[in-house]
Amino acid sequence: AELWAAGGIAAQSRYPSRVRRQPAHPHPRELLRAVERLWHSLLLMTRADREPLPKEARRELVPALEAFAATGDAYLGALGEALTRNAPPPAPDSTGVRVQELEDALRRLRERGATRPLESRQAERVFTLAFAVQELSRNFDEVADLFSGPGGQA
Q1: Which pTM does this prediction carry?
Q2: Which of 25, 43, 64, 128 would bridge with 101, disulfide CB 3.0–4.6 Å?
Q3: How far is it, in rounded angstroms, from Cα 108 to Cα 114?
Q4: Confidence of residue 24 (pLDDT cuts 50, 70, 90)
């Protein structure tokens, strides 16, 4: 509901006229779209994580998922803090490292053939979680890019 309300406010704002005078700020609609994509990726991850991972995947994926969760949580906190202070966003480099760790864990699972005996629903959850993490990483980059791109800070 809050995203819809923010969308309505952004649509009604006169911000485009201020953008010309204050180019260091991304347009509210662009920021809102990026936050909506981030929200949808978090929702996808939450839905895929409703049940515990299959035992075959847990040993490989849980450490990588927990590391990403901790890093992602810290990054989102730092990003929110930077946005409220109108400061440059933190570099999302550490989240990229965590995504790579998860991709490596998935590769090890596949190489061992550990995903083959999984029921299709279980395998879908494993790969949906991996996809959601990749999307979250892209979303982090997108929000950071808004502040360093043409409409953002140099």
Answers
A1: 0.72
A2: 64
A3: 9
A4: low
